[in-house]
Amino acid sequence: MTAPPIKSPLADRILRTFLRLVAERGIDATTTRVLAEEAAVNEVTIFRLFGDKANLVSAAVRHFQAADELERYPLSIDASSPERASQGLLALLDFLRKKLLEHPEFLQFGMAEYWRFPQLKEDISATPRAAHALMLRALAAAKPALQPDLDLRAASLTLHGLLLVSVAWPQRGWIELSDAEWRLAAEQAVRCLLRERDTVPRGAAGFTRRVVSPRTTR
Prior knowledge:
By secondary structure, the chain is an all-alpha fold. Helices cover 62% and strands 0% of the residues.
């Protein structure tokens, strides 16, 4: 069966409602009757557009996955100083968190119901894999400003862990997290990865050593 156009407002509403219900109740308790009631549509409309629950899952995964958008992200990392590298990494973290917050139900679905749909393994994992690859690219670009013994893969996993907790835990009601608290946590996580400001190696990929003199007070 052919899924409705991706820009169809009706299909979008049904799919959003479907993911929300699955995140709240689980896939087994999310019947087409419940979905029809919550999405304010006739159950026949769901069958006409998607056929069955398996097609609903497939359409939702393909509709909300963001791998293509992550691959197009205009990565910009200036590693001429730890401060500038930090700005690029923080911008990336903010972008990735924003994408997670757009569809937090998709995150919950992927983590809780992933095992039920082995035929969708590649589609469901496309977004986290793209996010991991993007983070590794960013860290590699920032490497002259990072600690010399830093393992980039471990650093990427650490930052993604922070991202997941900052979205999944508040959604579950386990913690409250304001935007200011998120920003502070992100800044501290990135700061742990950086070199001391006066140890960026001279001549590394064209970067120069910067020594920051202490400010004098008047």
